[in-house]
Amino acid sequence: MGTHGRPASTERRSLTSGSGKRTSEIIRLLAPRRRQRLVAILEKRPATIDRHVVARTLVTEESDTNVPGSAAVQRVEIDLHHNHLPALDEAGVVQYDPERGTVQLRDTSQVKRVLAMVDRQRGYSSGL
Predict the structure, then answer these.
(1) Which residues form the DUF7344 domain (predicted)?
(2) DSSP string, 77-93
């Protein structure tokens, strides 16, 4: 079995490999704003980072506060652990170790291109 209860042979369906996955699949994967912020945070850190640190950083960004409350950080950490990190790990965007609580961004040039496209679209939508 793989790390998330699926057979290891079917665990990863990489969006960044040479398999030519469509941009629409990446857009769907990165549709939640929190996942976009998560990838942006991981891009700034080349090494493995603790899930709690990621959660704290997300809460700080999402709430515009420098001192996030512990309950808010815990809620985001649970959300990351059960939803976002497993989905991104399965797609090959991040390497997530749920037992250690660590995450690292994989080489995701295609994902970065899609995020840049989404950012440009937001700029057009907001009239910038």
Answers:
(1) 28-104
(2) HHHIIIIIHHHHHHTTS
Distance CA 45, CA 27 (A): 23
pLDDT digits (tens, 9 = 90+) for 39-58: 989 988 878 999 999 999 99
Place of tokens 């995020």: 115
Domain architecture of the chain: domains with CATH: 22-116 (1.10.10)
Q: What is the pLDDT of residues 73-120, one digit of tens each?
A: 999 999 999 999 999 999 888 999 999 999 999 877 767 777 777 677
Q: Tell me the residue ranges of DSSP E strands in the chain.
A: 49-50, 94-97, 102-105
